Structure formats: C-alpha cells, structure tokens
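Predict the 3D structure for this chain.
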Amino acid sequence: MLILTAREVRQVLDGAEHQVVEAVSRAYRLHAAGRTALPHSLFLRFPEEARNRIIALPGYLGNTGAPDDREPVAGIKWISSFPGNLAAGLERASAAIILNSMRTGHPEVLLEGSVISARRTAASAALAAATLAPREPQTGATLIGCGVINFEVLTFLRALLPDLAEVTLFDLDPARAQAFADRCAARLPGLKTTTADRIEDALAAHRLVSLATTAATPHLDPAPCRPGTLLLHLSLRDLAPETVLSSVNIVDDGDHVCRESTSLHLAEQQAGHRDFIADSIGAILTGGRHHRDPEALTVFSPFGLGVLDLAVADLVHRRAQEQGLGTDVPDFLGPEG
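Done. Predicted structure below.
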C-alpha cells in the first residue's frame, strides 16, 4: 500500500491545472461513452445534526480500449462535510481515496482526498466555463461563497480563461470575503478583486458566476444576473425549482444530480419529468455541441461524479511514483498480502 499525504498530493498537483482538467475531461468523455461503472453515492447522515454528512463515492473508470491508453481504475472516495468546522478554524471537508488493483482487487493506494476533491470540482467548473464560452472574451467572474472550493475554481479559471482579469466576491461573512480578497492579492497578482456588500450586486457584476456555498435549501434569486450568464452551480441547492425550470441546464449525469434534494431534484419533483435538462457536459465535450444562449440563464450543475476523483487520484499516483513520493507499507494486508 502506498500512502500519499495532503502535502504530497499538493506537491504533485500545484501548477498542474491543465493536466487535471485533461484528466477530468477524459473522465467525462469516457462516462458519456458508457465506459464507466458508477453506483449512486451513499449519503451517511446523522439525526442529531442534519447539516453534517459523510458520502461514499465508489466507481470504475475504464478506457478507450486502445493499446496505448491508460489502465482502468477502480476505487472509492469517502468524504465528510461538517460545516460547523469553519467556526472552529477547521476545514469543512475531509476525505480519503482508495485505489484498488484491477488484477487482484487489493487496495493499492491511499490518498488524502480533500485536495483531490476540491481540484477536480474546480477543474470541472473551469472546463464548463471554457466549453460553454460566449463569443466575447470572458474577462470577469463572480464568486459566491469565499471558501476553499471557490479559491480553487478561481485558480483553474485563471488557467483556462486567459482574459480573466477581474473577480467580484460575496460571502455572508464579510470578514471571510476580505480574507479571500487578501489571499487573491498575495497569490494571484494582477487580478483585480472587488468585494460586494450585497449579493445582488455580485450577481450583476459578471456573466460568469460560481456558486460554492453550504446552503441546504434554495435561497438565491438570479434576477440580477445579466442576460447570457453562466451559473456554475457547484453547491447544487442554491436555486429554486422555478429558476431551474426556466434555465438552460447542463449536468454531469441526470440520474446522479436529480437526487438528495438538489435544486434539480426539486425541479423534477415539481415538473414530473427531466425534460428541463438540455445536455450533459460529457456529451458536449464528445460531440462538440454548444449551449450558451446569449439571452437565457445557463446553469451547470455537476453532482460530482466519483470517476472524476478516480481520474485525478490516478494522475496523482502516477506523478507521485515518478517523483518518488509517498510512504510504502508493504505489509498493509499482512504477511500473505
């Protein structure tokens, strides 16, 4: 068993945004081609504290069958979300990922998973922003929710959108928004950063908006958004069913995203169908179709497929081996292992 810590995962992934996006794009295309196995995520919830949860995401990521393609990958991500951690100065999410041998089924690699999870989420968002691009250059973005996920989103947007020069921030906690702005100034020089006092002003500032909140129920009125805005709906529960039903909706997988009281699940319950889903990002990447109405609101709602975590974890594993990183535990399975 090879064990890779958060520090080692970051060491491998820092500066590798384009490689992560390629791994995520490949996973989406393989999923669209039916070359994955992806059971529904399992949500472990607690009667005493409804906000907290731990999610299991098992999966199998195949390949194209070409002789020179990568080997298939199987494994699982086990990720917790405890929003109360933020008040205690801790990260909201923590995770572990296990990759299994496709020959024996034995667990082969244990990776710290929250870094991988955050960056595959950000890569997915940036890939959607680049794929569903308007005709004119995208020079600004709004981030609603100033936490780990949106900072990673901003990093990946900067990598994929060369014209991005300005970001507008909003958080219910103004101090959190200011700390985010300070971090941007230190790590992303040359980027103009503005904090908005009202969410309405933030939504109206740019036609690219990333939502990464801890909201459990719909709360956002997108009326201030400009025509042609793309909402990266990463937190999945911000929008009312009426907003979903009146928008152009792109998803990663309709069966997965219409679950667990997401905004799309609520819309499906209200409408009695899923006809409001226009397409999947995998189908768009495969077929070259384009869905960015210059007048309508486009909403990208990725449930967060476990095969994306496997794709990035496999990338980390391969790069870590090249760099000689990780701690090998040869007797993890015992003397017969």
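The domain at 2-116+306-328 is CATH 3.30.1780.10 (ornithine cyclodeaminase, domain 1).
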